[in-house]
């Protein structure tokens, strides 16, 4: 090869290399999630719908879609935005209070960074709840089904929030201005916004502590009952094989608009995770939920809702983006709040399997 051709080829290759190095990732990305499931409830509900306090994986004896969504995200140094549209039985159950196309919005928010030197953001729109450690996205939760108090606290919220994360990433502090308790649109006749706070501490990569609060009302002004809710949890990864999550919730609400007395509820939960291999894990969950006066779960029975639960699930990672799960769960109530063969009973047993794909 002639010397000038060698020089020319070298210059071309050098220019291509430099051009490739200058290419930056696009600020716009797309992702998706889909989780199908099958539940067999041994109480065999006649309408094929599981008890009213179950808001996820709630259709009996049929193959169905719990949650599927497509998401677009935009991120640059000082701007971020997300939009996700969804479908599935999760959407049918949890969006029952919303109207029109709002029923199909999983996430829709935009944020601006308020400081060039600090991680201080303000975000507004529809976003994931600041209460609890369980997500609507099954892949992000240790158990296949959601706990009683995860199903009965907000999965999503709408409003605005300001959040600050320390430079070392150990502390997150957030304050929220909300449209209500799992609401996109505020309740008709309610003129009072709701408020929330969140404080998260991660002393190291293996430990997380969180404390979240909510204050507000989910009723019109004429029947206003103020609700106060507190959520505590800790996540501990002892080593690669064993993890533990502990959660405690305590809520109170005014008993009537004429009275200063308060009704209360509380819930506790513990989850152990045992990682068997890179692909397989087992989770054991114990939970108890007490809502005697029906703040969130009304039963009309003498002792109200006082229910304990035990569940175990086996997870197998088919590939990096495909997860197959199977779970056996038992719920036992103090009162006969379940129905089997047309008669009230105290317990419910179900087996659930799901297959999720993320992309």
Please sum up the structure shown.
By secondary structure, the protein is mainly beta. The chain has three helices and 18 strands.
Structural summary, described in words:
By secondary structure, this protein is mainly beta. Helices cover 8% and strands 53% of the residues. The strands form two sheets. Strands 1-2-3-4-5-6-7-8-9-10-11-12-13-14-15-18 form a 16-stranded antiparallel beta barrel. A hairpin with a 2-residue loop joins strand 14 (305-319) and strand 15 (322-333).
Spatial strand arrangement across the major sheet: 1-2-3-4-5-6-7-8-9-10-11-12-13-14-15-18
Radius of gyration, in angstroms, nearest whole number: 24 Å
Helicity range: under 10%
- Estimated share of beta-strand residues: over 45%
Low-pLDDT windows of residues: 1-20
The mean pLDDT is 93
Shape: globular
Q: How far apart are the termini?
A: 47 Å
Note the main sheet: 16 strands, antiparallel, barrel
| Strands, count | 18
Number of helices: 3
What structural class do helix, strand and pairing data support?
Answer: mainly beta
SSE run: HEEEHEEHEEEEEEEEEEEEE
């Amino acid at each position: 090869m002639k010397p000038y051709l060698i020089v020319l080829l070298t210059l071309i290759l050098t220019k291509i290399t430099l051009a490739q190095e200058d290419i930056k990732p696009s600020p716009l990305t797309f992702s998706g999630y889909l989780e199908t499931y099958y539940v067999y409830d041994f109480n065999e509900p006649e309408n094929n719908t599981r008890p009213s306090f179950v808001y996820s994986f709630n259709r009996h004896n049929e193959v169905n879609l719990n949650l599927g969504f497509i998401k677009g995200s935009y991120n640059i140094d000082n701007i971020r935005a997300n939009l996700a549209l969804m479908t599935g039985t999760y959407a049918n159950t949890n969006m029952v209070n919303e109207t029109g196309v709002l029923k199909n919005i999983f996430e829709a928010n935009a944020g601006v960074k308020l400081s060039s030197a600090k991680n201080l953001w303000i975000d507004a729109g529809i976003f994931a709840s600041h209460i609890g450690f369980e997500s609507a996205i099954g892949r992000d939760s240790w158990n296949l089904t959601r706990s009683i108090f995860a199903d009965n606290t907000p999965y999503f919220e709408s409003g605005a929030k300001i959040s600050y994360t320390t430079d070392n990433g150990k502390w997150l502090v957030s304050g929220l201005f909300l449209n209500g308790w799992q609401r996109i649109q505020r309740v008709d006749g309610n003129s009072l916004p709701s408020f929330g706070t969140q404080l998260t501490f991660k002393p190291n990569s293996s430990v997380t502590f969180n404390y979240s609060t909510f204050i507000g009302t989910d009723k019109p002004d004429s029947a206003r009952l103020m609700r106060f809710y507190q959520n505590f949890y800790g996540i501990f990864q002892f080593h690669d094989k064993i993890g533990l999550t502990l959660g405690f919730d305590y809520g109170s609400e005014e008993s009537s608009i004429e009275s200063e007395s308060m009704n209360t509820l509380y819930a506790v939960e513990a989850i152990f995770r045992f990682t068997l291999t890179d692909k397989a894990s087992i989770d054991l969950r114990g939970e108890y939920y007490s809502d005697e006066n029906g703040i969130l779960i009304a039963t009309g029975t003498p002792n109200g809702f006082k229910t304990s639960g035990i569940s175990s699930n086996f997870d197998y990672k088919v590939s990096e983006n495909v997860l197959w799960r199977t779970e056996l769960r038992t719920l036992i109530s103090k009162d006969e709040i379940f129905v089997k063969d047309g008669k009230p009973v105290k317990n419910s047993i179900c087996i659930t399997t799901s297959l999720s794909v993320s992309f």
